[in-house]
Amino acid sequence: MNLSSSSILLPALRWLLANRLQKALQLRYTVFREINPFDYPEASYLRQQDSTPHQKIPLTRNRDITQISYTSAIALRVANEWQRSPKEIADEIYQELLNLGKTSVHNENYTSLELDLVWNYVSIQVASSGWMSFVIHPHGLAAWLHHLIHQPVRLNQFNQGSDRPDPRTWQFGIDSASLFFVQYTHARCHSLFRLAQQEGLLKPKEPQSADRISDWISNGLHDIEISWIGADGHLRTHHPTEQQFISQLVHTLDEIVRLDASLNATVGLQLAHGLSQSFHAFYAACRICDETRLTLPELVHARLGLIGITQSVLRSLLIDVIGTAAPTEL
Q1: How far from 53 is each of 62, 253, 319, CA to CA, in Å?
Q2: What three-state secondary structure class fits 329?
Q3: For residue 124, is pLDDT > 90?
Q4: What is the end-to-end Cα distance of the chain in Å, rounded?
Q5: Long-range Cβ contacts of 150-154 (<8 Å, 24+ apart)
Q6: CA–CA distance, 188 with 149 (Å, rounded to integer)
Q7: What integer pLDDT is reported at residue 197 of this predicted model?
Q8: Would you tell me how many other CB atoms lie within 10 Å of the CB of residue 39?
Q9: Model pTM?
Q10: For 287-312, what is the mean pLDDT?
Q11: Which of 192, 248, 252, 243 is nearest to 221 (CA)?
């Protein structure tokens, strides 16, 4: 799996931030190299992480589920080799990141618009120790969720030209109970959309038969302008189980990118199972087809959006990684 050339299909937040850090490093220290043309300590590091920022750039997700944030020890990692203080390096990277916020970053894997929509709502802090922290604010998460609605996850694109074996040969030792649970969750997403159609919560442009429900889910959501942000400036989906679920979505996509070539059926099933557990907790606490559909229609649409994203992630993990069926009913 070579995500460096296909990540446009999988906008993991960790990858987005690592990409920006990589670009800031390249811009800052390429200028340094032009001033001092002799070989310099920064050059070796830049060469090592040039094409795989999601693996080479140190970036760790924080545990707090009430906000999506990351920390990076990039300045500490290179300080000794570069013989400079971590704080000085972090300050230089920070200034370059601020400059990147004023312009579009052209990258072959993401359009500049997709990067900028999220990046416009990221705050950066530099600690005296040189640690850097990144907080993605609600509007940034809304842009990310919007992208996932309109660009469903399809991991099969990552395998093109890969030497990895057919995933259908990996199923020896797969936990059948966990697999059934994930398949049940995927089918449950479909049944919830059928119910939403019956209740008039989704009205696709053209009626879809049961065997085309996947297309209908995508098209049905495209017909709705999901308002992710409430009047208070926060995500409408702010119930603790919704926060936990969005956190699990972020974790799942981050892990797929982080693991890259080591992602296999067993690990894929673990990620799918974790997402499924979080989904059922979310759905048990945050119903859709009840009185909420009349009093809070924007919230209902946002919850349907989360269900649609879940369906696309589970479908691709089941088919493209685990190598099994993604049933629409059980």
Answers
A1: 19, 15, 27
A2: coil
A3: yes
A4: 31
A5: 150/222, 151/9, 151/11, 152/218, 152/308, 152/312, 152/316, 153/9, 153/10, 153/253, 153/309, 153/312, 153/313, 153/315, 153/316, 154/9, 154/312, 154/316, 154/320
A6: 18
A7: 78
A8: 9
A9: 0.82
A10: 83
A11: 192
